[in-house]
Amino acid sequence: MNLPEFYDQLDRHDWYYEWSDDHGVWERGSSDANRLAQIAKESPVHQKLHNDFTEHKFSGESWGTEKAPKPIRPT
After folding, report:
1. What is the C-alpha separation between 69 and 75, in angstroms, rounded?
2. What residues does each domain of the chain span?
3. Confidence of residue 43 (pLDDT cuts 50, 70, 90)
4. Given this model, what pLDDT does residue 55 score?
5. pLDDT category, 1, cuts 50, 70, 90?
6. Are the C-beta atoms of 61 and 48 separated by less than 8 Å?
7. How many C-beta neighbours within 10 Å does residue 53 have?
8. 72, 4 in Cβ contact below 8 A?
9. Contacts 24+ apart (CB under 8 A), 46-53
10. pTM beyond 0.85
11. What's the CA gap between 67 and 40, in Å, rounded?
């Protein structure tokens, strides 16, 4: 998968599905998270983009850390 497409999928992903009370939301989120993790293994650049999104989504005031910047979309 090319990097811009992967970025778009990471950007649309429900990063907080694990906190849903709806089991269907949890199942879809879990399946999508696993799929994205597999795609991240395609290359070190894919993995870095995945890691950077993870850091961005799980940082900031709610997490007691400085907010990590959102990755820039590759061209």
Report:
1. 18
2. 3-63
3. very high
4. 98
5. very high
6. no
7. 22
8. no
9. 46/1, 46/3, 46/6, 49/3, 49/6, 49/7, 49/10, 49/74, 50/10, 53/10, 53/11, 53/13, 53/15
10. yes
11. 23
Distance separating the N- and C-terminal Cα atoms of the chain: 13
Tokens 């709610």 -> residue: 62
Tokens for 27, please give them. Answer: 């199942």
For residue 34, give Cα distances in angstroms to 9, 12, 72.
13, 15, 23
- The token duo for 22 is 């709806």
**DSSP state, 4?**
H
3-class secondary structure, 12: helix
Asked if 75 contacts 4 with a C-beta cutoff of 8 angstroms, the reply is yes
Report how far residue 26's alpha carbon sits from residue 15's, in angstroms, rounded to the nearest whole number.
10
